[in-house]
Amino acid sequence: MFRNMYDTDVTVWSPEGRLLQVEYAMESVKQGSACIALRSSTHSVIGALKRSVSELSAHQQKILEIDDHLGIGIAGLTADARTLAKWMRNECLNHKYVYGTALPSGRLVTDLADRHQRTTQSYVRRPYGVGLLVASFDKNGPHVYQTCPSGNVYECYATAIGARSQSGRTYLEKHCESFEECSKDDLIMHALKALVGCVSGDGELTRENGSVAIVGKDQKFTLIEGEELQPYLDRLELEGGNNGGNAEEEEDDDGEAEEMET
Amino acid sequence: MSLSLQSGGTSSRALPHPSTSSGLTAPAEATTRPITTGTSVLGIKYNGGVMLAADTLCSYGSLAKYKNARRLLPINSRTLVGASGEYSDLQSISDLLRRNALEDRCTADSLYEEETESEECAKEVWSYLRAVMYNRRNKMNPLWNDVVVAGFKQDADGTTSDEPFLGIVDKIGTAYEDDILATGFGSYLASPSFVKSTRRIWRRVRHVPCGGLLEDSVL
């Protein structure tokens, strides 16, 4: 295809006015496993599906704590994500040392976007191959941001990235009106339900591959995994089934079963 | 323009680099003594906020040189700063803090306009000053001031609360918060009687009596 002539360097424009290398970097994000984020008026939640390389290996960490009031969910190149996380943690700590307060997430995310952009305008660097979902609670309330390798940052009420994330987005769009007033636990349930649709084939959301984090008013950034996740997974079973992709074997709960997106 | 702690928070270099000097410039010097000085600043919390008081004299040694100098300065809509000691250093601090406040206003904290509260609160200004003063002290070139910072506290979620804030930072970077503060001679002459009369009941002291109390102390 003609695309190939303009995609070798990030500093080369295609005739359609696109930076193909940046777009290829965004493809990398789509290869990562799904990550969901949503917020209410008091809390922000991240949910993620952890992948394991093989039966024998541990599941890859997808949610990273940045500070007491801020955390990220990642999709794409994990190594790139760790570099960004390291930088974000440093920024937060510096701000705390100098100003004695938590770094406002809007400011951090804007600087993060600038960092991404610099890589798209340099001959010797490449874009970061990872998309981040930033969930925070600071003096301006709860926030959810989505970052791209292109340097764009979007603030959202709810969003999903990674493989098969469209089903997550569809679920979130359907229920987004109800998020504002949700309680902590209901918000987590929404994240899990959105995540279920992103599981491949006849896989299941389990306490090994599921991962949730919450931050909010009077709630420091807290990771919920493993045993602690089980009560939510049990509730998920009751409320609508835990099957990825296929809608068979749904437990009907007096007609309140959620439709699973394929 | 450099606001980094590296350069002591100001863009002008206090110590010219010896290697770039033409040979005719004076050798680099650090502040060893104050020249034009202001005296005490008093601050007390009361029911409704916090009040600062200072006279408007800047002395040149024993000469009463500048008789109408402002030593209490607003930084943004939430913070007031007052300082004793070297007046030029106060002006430098004031420039620095105002520049920060301007940058704050120009930098969107959020991508969307609905978000407010992007101004630094008093506690952040106080903490920032502590970092700057301590950094300068470590370079053996202090800003020769005792700075009082007044304003309101921030709640855990960052909105300005009704709780007043009063803090002090001295020339070597010691930072301290209290209900009643004074710099210089005020801490010997005025503070003790304040503390005795109003420390535990400052929440009940109203605006006008508070002003009267401070005026009497300044005189």
Automatic annotation (TrEMBL), chain A:
Entry keywords, A to Z: Cytoplasm, Nucleus, Proteasome
Annotated region (Disordered), positions in chain: 237-262
A GO cellular-component term linked to this record: proteasome core complex, alpha-subunit complex
Domain Proteasome alpha-type subunits, residue spans: 6-28
SUPFAM superfamilies: N-terminal nucleophile aminohydrolases (Ntn hydrolases)
Matching Pfam families: Proteasome, Proteasome_A_N
Primary localisation category: cytoplasm
Bias type Acidic residues, positions: 247-262
Gene Ontology biological process: ubiquitin-dependent protein catabolic process
Location of this chain's protein in the cell: Cytoplasm; Nucleus
Subunit annotation: The 26S proteasome consists of a 20S proteasome core and two 19S regulatory subunits.
Family named by the database record: Belongs to the peptidase T1A family.
Protein name: Proteasome subunit alpha type
Organism of derivation: Skeletonema marinoi
Automatic annotation (TrEMBL), chain B:
Cellular localisation: Cytoplasm; Nucleus
Region (Disordered): 1-32
Record keywords, A-Z: Cytoplasm, Nucleus, Proteasome
UniProt biased composition (Polar residues): 1-24
GO cellular-component term (any): proteasome core complex
UniProt cross-references to InterPro entries, sorted A to Z: Ntn_hydrolases_N, Proteasome_bsu_CS, Proteasome_sua/b, Proteasome_suB-type
GO biological process, one term: proteolysis involved in protein catabolic process
Record-linked Gene3D superfamilies: Glutamine Phosphoribosylpyrophosphate, subunit 1, domain 1 (3.60.20.10)
Subunit structure: Component of the proteasome complex.
Function in brief: Component of the proteasome, a multicatalytic proteinase complex which is characterized by its ability to cleave peptides with Arg, Phe, Tyr, Leu, and Glu adjacent to the leaving group at neutral or slightly basic pH. The proteasome has an ATP-dependent proteolytic activity.
Family membership: Belongs to the peptidase T1B family.
Record's protein name: Proteasome subunit beta
Natural source organism: Skeletonema marinoi
